[in-house]
Amino acid sequence: MKEGLEKKMTIDFEPQIVKLFLSYIYKGAIQEDDLKCYALDLLQMGKMYDIGSLFEFCENFIVSNINSDNVGDVYKIAKLMESEKLIQGCNACYKR
Fold this sequence. Notes:
The chain is mainly α and 96 residues long.
């Protein structure tokens, strides 16, 4: 692995998202205001780094906050992340 040889790792997320990710790992929580802004990004990080509890935490937050303004973005990420829960949440939003 390249990271092992170079002793460094590249993460393709904004620094604020990485800080929140690390905060979740060490503290087990993220402030709701931060989730409102970064839940989709954190969901992706949870999937990418196999942090199932973060993925579920974000998934539950997103599902409860799907609306007509964000349903398109959520659906795209839901398909990419293979999140049946989010896909069903988007479908329910479309039916309203």
